[in-house]
Design brief:
The protein is mostly helical and 106 residues long. The protein has one domain. It is 81% helix and 0% strand. The chain has 5 helices and no strands. Helix 1 crosses helix 5 and helix 3 packs across helix 5. The radius of gyration is 23 Å and the shape is rod-shaped. Keywords: Signal.
Length: 106
């Protein structure tokens, strides 16, 4: 009888662990997809609106440094471009990192 209980407990544990892992994967996928959609929307707005903007184009090297150092290096041209973008497109609710990555896609 104790062997049956042990097998039942093991089976129940396996099912619960699988359900937790599946739930974690689904939740993670949803969060990642939402962040990707936000990033894609920001990139599309920046790319289409500012592809010929001299201030934004001049900030590409600074944006690359910013992204590569995870925000530790903030060049003057990047700061100017971020201010310029936020002034021209106030509807964007993007972080500095998202805007810097969008600048790199232009």
């Amino acid at each position: 009888m104790s062997r049956l209980r042990l097998l039942s407990a093991a089976a129940l544990f396996a099912v619960a662990a699988n359900a937790s892992a599946t739930s974690f994967i689904v939740t993670t996928d949803a969060v990642v997809n939402a962040l990707k959609a936000t990033s894609d929307a920001t990139t599309n707005v920046i790319s289409s609106s500012f592809k010929d903007d001299k201030i934004v184009l001049a900030a590409r090297d600074d944006a690359a440094s910013f992204v590569a150092t995870e925000g530790n290096i903030r060049g003057v041209k990047l700061e100017s471009a971020l201010d310029h973008i936020r002034h021209k497109a106030p509807q964007l609710n993007a972080s500095d990192a998202q805007l810097a990555q969008a600048i790199l896609t232009i």
